[in-house]
Amino acid sequence: MYQIASIGLLKVVLACLLLSGVSACTSTAVTHIVPAPDKALVERALSGAALDILHQTPTPRIAPDELLSLTPEMAEFAEQAVSGQRRDADKVRALHNALLLPESGGGRGVLYESAATFTPAETYRQRRANCLSFSLLFVAMARHVGLDARINDVAIPPTWGRVGDRLQFMRHVNAKVNLRHSIDTLVIDLDMRNYRAYYPQHVISDRSAKSQFYNNLAIAPLDAQGGTLANRFFNLKQALALDSSQSFLWNNLATLYRQQGLNDLAEALYVEALVRNPQDLTAIQNLSQYYRQEGELALAAKLDALAYQHRESNPYYQYRLASKYYRNAEYQQAAQRIESAIKKHPDEPLFYKLAVDIYDTLGLTRKAQKAQQKRERL
C-alpha cells in the first residue's frame, strides 16, 4: 500500500499499512499546493521512451492469468486437503493447515520469505512465500474447492525496511473467505499469530491483487535475477494497466524515473500519485524532497507541513516517537507520546505494553497497573 520513503520504491510484501487518514482540509490543501499533472509528461513516462529500454524484452514474462491458476497436481492437493470436510469453515482450516504443516506431518510446509514473490505454482513448488504469494495460492486453491475466497488488504502498523539506499514501506494482504449459510467470514494469514482482527482491512479485487504482484517484481534489487531497469519499468506498467487507482504505483514509477535523472517525468508522476490519493504521505514527502532539490523551497515547505500534520495524526507514528524517547531515557516525552497514541487508537495492545514500561520506569504504579489491565483485556 505505501507508501515510499525518501528515494525508495514501495515493496508490497509481508507488511503494509494504509496510513491513518488526515482531514478533508489536508486533501484539499494538496490540490491547491501542487500543480495539475502534466498529462503529456505522464503519457511519455508510461511509454518508456525516455528510458531507452523499449528494445529489451522483460524476463521472466508472467501472464496475469497465472496468478490465480493451479496445476493439476495443485488442484489434487487442494481436493485431498478438504476431503471429508462438509462445512466451509472446516474446509478453510483444513486447507490452511495442509499448506503450512511440514511435509513430515502430511502438509506442504510453506514458509515465509519476504522476497518470495512467486506465482501460485512456484510457491507450491518452492514452499516459500511472502504474504501476497501465499494469499494468491490459498485463494486459488480455496476457489477450486468451492469456497468464496478473496484477497484482503490489511492496514497493519507501519513497517519500514531498508534495502541499499532505499527505504521501503511495507504492505500486508491475506485471504478472507465468506462462509455459506453464515454471516461470518474467516481470515487466513501466513502468520496468524501477528494478525489482529481490529486492523482496518478491506477486500480488494483480483486485478488489484495482481497489480500488487507486479509491483513486487518491479522493486526487486537490481542485482537480483530479473531485477533490470527494463523489468522494473515493464512490471510497473503492467501493474498500472491492472489497477491505475493505486497511488503507490505512480509513486514507484516516479521514483524509478527520478533515479534515472529524469526529473520532469518524476515530478509529473508524483503529482499523478497525489491526484489518485491526496493523502499519500510518501508521495507528499517524495515531492517535497524533489522541490527542495530543485530550489522550490516554498513548495517544499508547504508539503512538509502537510506531511507533519499527517504523521501527527497517525497513532503508530506517536508510538514510534514514544519508543525513541524511552530508549533515550526521555521518559516524560515518552509518556506524552504513548498517551497520544492510545488516545488515537485505544485498541492496540502494543501501545499498552510500552505504556507499562514507561510508567514503571517513572514510578507511576497505578498508571502502569491500569495499562496492564487494559492490555490483558484486548
TrEMBL record:
**Limits of the Transglutaminase-like domain:** 76-151
Give me the TPR repeat coordinates as residue ranges: 315-348
What highest taxon heads this organism's lineage? Bacteria
List the Gene3D superfamilies hit by this protein, alphabetically. 3.10.620.30, Tetratricopeptide repeat domain (1.25.40.10)
Q: What is this protein called?
A: Transglutaminase domain-containing protein
Query: SUPFAM superfamilies attached here?
Result: Cysteine proteinases, TPR-like
- Please give one Pfam family short name: Transglut_core
Organism expressing this protein natively: Gilvimarinus japonicus
